[in-house]
């Protein structure tokens, strides 16, 4: 059987350990000291849940927030741009800057930044402070999520590492299914400040769990500055990363403004909207799982083509959402399924193209490209809403996604197809 996507990720990190003087045996031998492992993994998953809920609840409350603080929906969308760009720029820098610090202290510091950002958002007196709070929140997320993933890989027993990684990253997925819709519901009932503040008690609980359960001494060395420079010099890898930027820019013309789009087409209130967002999250989870399975079976390139086609189909159907709320729910679920299914296949493609020595840097840069794409999509979407309103978002996203498909076809013809376990 071909190696799974998660197994490839484990291979990348195993090679990274060896390049820094650690062996798999050394890590495995250290595991018995790291107890209890399951409790630590749940703590890290809860941290990701806090990060995801804090970051993306605002997307469901753009209408309420903009009305309350006296700005347009398009201007409120730029708060998502600030978050995305801060994440993209902060992730590589913070990874290198904290490389010599103990991993437990790094994730605690990251959660403290998240908690500070959430409280600052909830208490922000004006849009400028709100934007600054989003930047602080992004720095916490950019530091926490990749560090938590690598802690999971390190402390779990070798035969349980895939499940450990899935559990920790699953906290982000759970935030899309539970945290964001719940925050949207609370924000609609009590005000947007209560909705965005929902992440604060979760972040505090995660800090306490991390403090009590995550080991103090974890063998870990992140990629250094030289690895990032080497990744930028690899033009084949840069071509692969460019697809992340193109596709996520198009996807987030719709994704960031999904709540205003649903509201404008259907006229539903905040409470029904929260139900639709739950289904949006469920479809995203199914897309993520399906994307990973298809990548293992038919390869990254074909999987990317399938999900880009589904994403494009969703964009074509969005104008029909006004027919009924039920049809709107099905359309937005199709769109979400396609958008979320893209990510696992693209990550596998990045890992297949990256030289082993640059694996860690390549994954960090792929995350940065993803969040630059979110920022570009949010910024462009805000401008388009101010110009023509939400109906112009889906057609524009469709054009960009078609360009992404053409770019994928061109790059694969030039470099060769990326199948399961393929190397360039």
How would you sum up this structure, described in words?
This protein is an all-alpha fold and 424 residues long. It folds into 2 domains: 222 residues, Growth Hormone, Chain: A (Up-down Bundle), CATH 1.20.1250.20; 201 residues, MFS general substrate transporter like domains (Growth Hormone, Chain: A). The protein contains 18 helices and no strands. Helix 4 crosses helix 5, helix 8 runs antiparallel to helix 14 and helix 12 runs parallel beside helix 17. The longest helix has 30 residues. The N terminus and C terminus are likely disordered.
Quickly give the CATH architecture of the largest domain: Up-down Bundle
Output the number of helix runs.
18
How confident overall, as mean pLDDT? 80
The overall number of domains is 2
CATH topology of the largest domain: Growth Hormone, Chain: A
Number of extended strands:
0
Strand content: under 5%
Query: Looking at this structure, what is the CATH superfamily of the largest domain?
Result: MFS general substrate transporter like domains
* Structural class label: mainly alpha
Mind summarizing the main beta sheet? none
- What is the H-and-E element order? HHHHHHHHHHHHHHHHHH
The stretches of 5 or more residues where confidence is low (pLDDT under 50) are 1-36, 418-424
Q: Quick one: CATH class of the largest domain?
A: Mainly Alpha
The gyration radius over C-alpha positions equals 20 Å
> How far apart are the termini?
20 Å
Any idea what the shape is? globular
Query: Helical content, roughly?
Result: over 70%
């Amino acid at each position: 059987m071909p190696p799974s996507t998660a197994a490839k990720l484990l291979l990348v990190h195993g090679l990274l350990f060896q390049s820094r003087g650690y062996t798999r045996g050394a890590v495995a031998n250290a595991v018995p000291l790291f107890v209890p492992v399951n409790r630590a993994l749940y703590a890290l998953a809860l941290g990701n849940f806090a990060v995801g809920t804090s970051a993306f609840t605002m997307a469901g409350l753009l209408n309420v927030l903009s009305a309350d603080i006296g700005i347009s929906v398009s201007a409120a969308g730029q708060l998502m741009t600030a978050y995305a760009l801060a994440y993209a720029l902060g992730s590589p820098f913070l990874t290198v800057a904290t490389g010599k610090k103990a991993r437990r202290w790094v994730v605690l510091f990251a959660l403290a930044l998240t908690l500070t950002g959430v409280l600052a958002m909830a208490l922000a007196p004006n849009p400028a402070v709100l934007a600054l709070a989003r930047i602080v929140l992004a720095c916490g997320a950019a530091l926490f999520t990749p560090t938590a993933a690598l802690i999971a890989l390190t402390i779990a027993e070798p035969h349980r590492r895939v499940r450990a990684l899935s559990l920790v990253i699953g906290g982000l997925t759970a935030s899309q299914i539970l945290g964001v819709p719940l925050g949207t519901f609370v924000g609609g009932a009590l005000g947007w400040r209560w909705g965005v503040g929902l992440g604060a008690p979760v972040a505090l609980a995660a800090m306490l769990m991390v403090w009590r359960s995550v080991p103090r001494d974890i063998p870990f060395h992140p990629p250094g500055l030289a690895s990032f420079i080497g990744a930028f010099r690899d033009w084949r890898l840069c071509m692969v990363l460019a697809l992340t930027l193109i596709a996520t820019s198009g996807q987030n013309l719709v994704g960031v403004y999904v709540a205003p789009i649903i509201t404008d087409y259907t006229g539903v209130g905040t409470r029904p909207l929260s139900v639709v967002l739950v289904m949006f999250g469920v479809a995203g989870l199914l897309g993520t799982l399906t994307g990973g399975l298809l990548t293992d079976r038919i390869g990254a390139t074909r999987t990317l083509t399938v999900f880009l086609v589904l994403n494009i189909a969703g964009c074509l159907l969005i104008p029909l959402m006004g027919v009924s709320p039920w049809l709107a729910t099905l359309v937005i679920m199709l769109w979400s399924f396609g958008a979320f299914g893209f990510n696992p296949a693209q990550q596998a493609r990045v890992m297949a193209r990256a030289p082993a020595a640059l694996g860690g840097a390549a994954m960090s840069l792929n995350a940065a490209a993803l969040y630059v794409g979110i920022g570009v999509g949010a910024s462009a979407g805000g401008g388009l809403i101010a110009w023509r309103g939400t109906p112009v978002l889906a057609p524009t996203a469709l054009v960009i996604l078609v360009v992404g498909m053409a770019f994928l076809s061109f790059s694969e013809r030039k470099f060769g197809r990326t199948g399961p376990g393929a190397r360039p």
